[in-house]
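Reviewer comment 2.1 asked that we show a complete input and output for one of the modelled complexes. We chose the F7E case, as it is the one discussed in the main text.
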Amino acid sequence: MPRALITGITGQDGLYLSELLLSKGYEVFGLVRGQNNPKLDVLRRVAPEVQVLTGDLTDVSSLVRILAVAQPDEIYNLGAVSFVAYSWENAALTTDVTGKGVLNMLEATRLYAGDDIEKVRFYQASSSEMFGKVQDVPQRESTLLWPRSPYGVAKVFGHYMTINYRESYGMHASSGILFNHESPRRGPEFVTRKVTMAVARIKLGLQDSLTLGNLDAKRDWGFAGDYVEAMWRMLQQPVADDYVIATGETHSIRDLLDAAFKAVGVDDWARYVEQDPRFMRPAEVDLLVGDASKAREVLGWKPAVGFDELIKLMVEADLAEQSALVH
Ligand code: NAP
Ligand code: F7E
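Response of the prediction step:
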């Protein structure tokens, strides 16, 4: 039975990846942060077989201890401060967790592997946010990185450190440069879920309006369930490498509003939507669209769920969740 350790297991991707690995017969260990973490209940419901170990990416000794217990064949480093807007307000924390946390995990992994570096494979959750002020359209593995937020800068550090451990120590360490991916498990602070929850609540008469920031930014949005499959495929390759994972389609926040309101039969959403500078960012990433042809050719990966289907399924899930809360 292969053994996997996932950091960030209580997050959106951690939950989908746990389900995937359990379905493939893995023994799954998850690093959970904090005392009495409220998200642990969801993990226990979704994937009760996961063995929980407590630790923190900023505490190297906790990572060393966890690796000694879990004895993993594969490590998926998904833990991060992941909300871009928050990263300006808490730049040092973001740097410690999202940036230095990667180095902590790589170093703990190197110590765990000892003389047998080939006994373990490492996945780093890199991000399209690293492309920032984009230098190519679409963005691919060779595109120059130009991050625009403290989060993006921290991810660039983690990305290059992962490559450095591969080149310095021969570690099987791969970096997935994942574009935005969403689901009904997405945190409510991210724009897709903020919109689909609000649309469901407006439809049910629980809310009158929705306040957003920049409606012109464009993102390449895919389904998280498809993207965790790509993570697993990367670690099954004989040689570690970096891969862009994306749909190749881009949509604005306005397109997102079109799709979400259409799912509840509303064509004219303008009367429900307000804008507030509070939700604008000090520096914006205007356009993201990825070229995932390397992943398609080498990993045989392609997304199954398209944009309209994704937003519809999120609205439907929020309608069910919100009506259950009021009944
Ligand atoms: P998420 O839902 O925000 O989950 C983040 C996870 O990190 C949570 O489990 C959180 O645990 C954990 N975490 C935060 N601080 C930690 C710390 N100090 N030590 C250990 N764990 C900590 O993020 P996601 O959407 O699943 O994304 C997974 C990873 O992919 C992240 O690294 C993210 O930056 C990256 N990524 C995401 C996307 C996307 O579109 N979703 C795209 C590219 C890259 P708590 O329970 O303690 O909060
Ligand atoms: O913003 C605009 C906002 O917060 C998307 C993370 O998973 O993907 C995610 O980062 C866009 C931005 O995601 C609101 O200005 C407008 O242009 O949903 P988001 P993100 O910043 O793209 C990357 C790949 C990651 O790696 C990250 O971890 O939407 N926007 N109005 C808004 N965004 C939010 N959150 N709230 C608004 O009211």
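The radius of gyration is 20 Å. We note this here for comparison with the apo prediction described in Section 3.2.
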